[in-house]
Request: fold
Amino acid sequence: MLPRVLGLGNELLGDDAVGVIAARQIKHELTDQVDVAETSVYGLGLLDVVLGCRQLIIIDAIRTGTCPIGTMIQLDPETLDRVVAPSPHYSGIPEMRALARALDLDFPEQLAILAVEISDGECFGAPLSEPVRAAIDQVVNRVKTQLVQWRSQKPGDTTAVDCPEIGEMFANQVKTEWRCTNEG
Reply:
C-alpha cells in the first residue's frame, strides 16, 4: 500500500490553494511512490479520504500570524487540541481519529501534517502570493524526506523527524507543537 499525500484547500481562494497545488506537484514528481488526493472538504467529511492508508501526509494552509508568510511548519498530530466547534463540519484530526477508533475504521498509523503560513486565504480569485508559491518546493522536499524516513523505519516504529529549534521558538506562543523550519 502506497503512502497517501492529501492536499487540502480551495483553488479559488488565493493562498488557501497551497495544499492542492503542492499535491499536484508531488503527484507529478512521485507518480509511482505515493497515492495523491486533493480536496476542499473539511471536518469529518475528510474521513472518506484518509481511511484505508497506513501512512498519510496532509498539506494545508495555516494562518498563525507568528511566522513569515511562506514558512513551512510541521505540526505534530499528537499535540493537536480537540476542536470546540458547533458542528462536526469543523472537527479536526483528533476528532477524526477518535471517531475512527470508536467505529473500528482503518485510520492511518503514521501521520504527518505540513502547513504553509499564509496571509489571506479568503480572497476570491486571487493567485498564490509569491512567498507561498516559493514554499511549494520546500513542501515537496519535506514530503520526500518523510517518505524516505518512513521507508527506513522498522515496522511499528513511529518516531518522527524533529526540528527542536522551531519547537522551542513557538512553545510559549501556541499549544500545538511546531516542527520543521523555513528552509528557504
